[in-house]
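Entry 14: structure prediction run for Protein-S-isoprenylcysteine O-methyltransferase Ste14. Input pasted below.
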Amino acid sequence: MVIINFISFILFLVFVISYFLKLYILSGRNQIKANVLGKKGKSAGVTIVEMIVKLSSFGWAAVWCFHSLFGNTLFKTMFQSSAVSLIGIIATGAGVAIFIIAMVQMRTSWRVGIDDTSRTTLITSGVYRYSRNPAFVGFDLMFIGLYLMYPNWVTLCVAVLNLVAFHCLILQEEKHLRSTFGESYHLFSQKTPRYLWFRL
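Run finished. Output tokens:
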């Protein structure tokens, strides 16, 4: 399990560094405040969803970091399987990679949360040809991967909570994109699945 913890921690660091580096680049080079998650001035529905996502994702990051450093020391493991742990590592690594690719290809349109204060560009190329929300696909793989690496009730609850919360955020974001881009977004959503091969 030591190797799982080591790889998990490396993936955690890669995710965190890439996330904050993107925020720093947008802020410094482009003067864009990209983190608008839970900011004031939004509708009650959007604010509630964004605050839930903010809290649930912080909890997920804390649980991921803790497990990477200390393994399953405090929580009863639901089952032991090296093969499942390996699948968890692969899912998490794929999730981190997809997230970074989506973030890079979004260029200056990338935001954390719904931004109704500035005009962005609708990105439909690259990984966005296969999914309207590839960054969220990456997150979902990371949530599931965490549970598979460290299968206990805490990681299961964290994964389920974040999968539901992020899906609710996607629904709110799609309303915003429909009102912002109109027919362009409608056509994009008609030919591109919300996630990958299916349309939830």
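Notes: The chain has a mean pLDDT of 93. Will compare against the previous run tomorrow.
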